[in-house]
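The protein record passed on for reference:
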Amino acid sequence: MLTSYILLFLLLLFGAFGVVEYARHQRRARSIPIRIHVNGTRGKSSVTRLIGAGLRVGGISTITKVTGTYPRLILEDGSDVHIHRRGDANIIEQLSVVRLAAERKVSALVVECMALEQQYQRITERQMIHATIGVITNVRLDHIDIMGRTLPEIASVLAETIPSRQHLFTAETLISDVLQNYADKKHATMHVSTEESVSQDEMKGFSYIEHRENVSLALAVCQHLGVDRQVALQGMYTAIPDAGVLRRFVVGAFGKQLAFYNAFAANDPDSTFLVWKRLKEESGLEGTRIVLLNTRQDRMDRARQLAELAGRKLNPDMDYLMLIGQSTEVVRDMAVGYGVQAHRILPVGWTTAEAVFEKALEVTERASTIVAIGNMGGMGATVADYFEHRSIHTNDRISDYAGAGSKSVVV
């Protein structure tokens, strides 16, 4: 009997603690005047960083939190801090970020949504962030096993982070009407930006390959908050990019030149195809054209999508499909089924980054363009790092980024 009373007492104690802590969190969140919740399929990390940089240079004290390739905090002075997790990624992490921002009394918090499941996206927005501005970068066919197999289904999940009676900014143009319906239901004002609002000359200020639609979206948010467009742009030019941004590394060996594009972050078929088209239009994809697809055994649905993309859309323009990572024989059969000729598939498999480089070198006559897609996980990051370290030159501020990881914070 005594044991039952003790258990009941503990349950009541824990319950009371939970109620008190919940109330404290709500006060912390609302003590931050500007709260921006960035969601979407592609470009979340880049847009989050760009918005933070634009606000910061505009005189608004801002903390930015990205999940991206690696979890990071960008503090008020623009310093990039590594987030050291005690366990796996969990949306509870957002509570610690809100507490930090409240304790430092910043004016703005820009947070990348880290939830995939619909109920967790709802909880993150309604119970944790309470955004004053919601951002949905775009709606693409990705994480279809979790978020849905059609664009409207995926949009319904992303719409959970639209803040009630606030503002929604998006660069989504294909199904903007669907997002508009959700915004209307929440009495939110929706703003749609397009890449045409940013000129090619303005894009030349970036020292890495950024997407115009990301810049346009970030500028729209900054201007809405009173930051001058040119001032915001200058801040974005100097911002440290996410590790997953599109980068180009050029490697010379044995009289040959290999241009490696790290497009691993564009891991859904629509975004990947857009990257391919852009590179084809702007750089010409010189020399031997190699699509390097990194696959993971736990992402076979995505591998199938990208194998279909290679067979049905990239096939006329590529010379080889190089397969690295896990289950490459399975993916090889998929690609053949979608129309890629077997002799043009290079199933390298799970191996070293040096072996991947040597295979690319072997099929290169004088020059080649390697577009790496699929996933940064598994072998992806290792291969990208290998080409970076061997590169003659890059169009990214690698030294700046490398120095940014010297500090860390535990969440």
User: Anything to note?
Assistant: The radius of gyration is 23 Å.
